[in-house]
Amino acid sequence: MADISNGTKGFAVKQGEPTRVLPAEETKKGLYYLGNLDQNIAVIIRTIYLFKSESKGNEDAAEQVKNGLSRILVHHHPLAGRLTISSEGKLIVDCTGEGAVFVEAEANCGIEEMGDITKPDPNILGKLVYEISGAQNLLEIPLLVIQVTKFKCGGFSIGMSMNHCMLDGIAAMEFVNGWGEVTRGLPLKTPPFLDRTILKPRNPPMIEFEHHEFDEIEDISNTNKLYEEEEMVYKTFLFDPDKLGQLKEQALEDGVLSKCTTFEVLAGFVWRARCKALNLVPQQKTKLLFAADGRKRFIPPLPEGFAGNGIVLTYSISTAGELAEKPLSFAVGLIQQAVKLATDSFMRSAIDYFEVTRARPSLDGTVLITAWSKLSFYTIDFGWGEPISTGPVALPEKPVLIFLPHQKDKKSINLLLGLPVSAMNSFEELMQV
């Protein structure tokens, strides 16, 4: 398994003064409803998109991207507003039309000197995304912050900082692809559907399931101490079709399962390996969380272009001992059960559960897998062709792992994770299997 590292040294970026980009036309003002599925993921997600064209330089890049941003904000006008707290004590958007924050910047090198950005290095990649200084909390951070950085080679990057409460991965990709379309003067392929009240809780709320995704798990293995004492190391591991095929064979060889998806087998394999690498005691409970896309699972399905969070967290729980001792089919089977759990009734129960409890998922003893591997990162085009590379700046929390699409081979997946250095050494050995 290849470790893709980033060897950039002496990298510097000179940032200009931030400006505001307003919607190109007058947009609707007032309060904009955020649903219960939006409330729990109000974290800032920072992503980078690198572009370089053989036939076109970067002289007009910032201006064109900025003009396109102004046009796309007409369609996605809530992103031009600001977060506030509703009378119910929940997050809501005040559609003030203040606009997105936009920054132009210049790097002291060519794009090729960046190395591979699929391994997040916040110290390096963080320079490509503008950070609002002095913000005391999420309410003080604009919902959308964009930095366009020109490189000496004629390429450029778009660094995007967005609050996850506004868009999930699918909606975010529709937004960025749509932004590229209007920048090129094209009509939107997928106009956004903005009405989130279709996912309002029921009245009265009906909690029909046990929602163990919110369970607190006691850290009897003292993992938190390891995180405090050791340096965190971030690495990317490539799973090509051959390796994924081998894992599927391994998961099916004992006949317990008749089939499994790429996501199910990779999630099961990585969950087991991470538990072993952290040397969890056999009795340690461990929880795997991942987002199921509810768009087609809700009854009726969510409208095309649903611009919000249409994802619901589902879960598997085991002990570390069972995961380690039993064959891979055991872990994969647990994940298959979690996938089946995400029905319309379960998802509506989760919406109502938050309404009653205001609970937040606990991440102690937990692995949270974010699957970006099927997202349309490599179809984005602002007029310079598709990105030559793209990825997150950093992982939002220590227990988060991300499955990323591979640029050249759509059937390969890059696994990105962070672990304390001793655990990462063990994890790397387990990846050789």
Automatic annotation (TrEMBL):
Q: Which UniProt keywords apply?
A: Acyltransferase, Transferase
An example of a GO molecular function for this protein is: acyltransferase activity, transferring groups other than amino-acyl groups
Which InterPro entries is this protein grouped with?
A: CAT-like_dom_sf (IPR023213), Plant_Fungal_Acyltransferase (IPR050317)
Family designation: Belongs to the plant acyltransferase family.
The UniProt entry, under PANTHER family, shows: FATTY ALCOHOL:CAFFEOYL-COA ACYLTRANSFERASE, TRICHOTHECENE 3-O-ACETYLTRANSFERASE
Its name, as the record gives it, is Omega-hydroxypalmitate O-feruloyl transferase
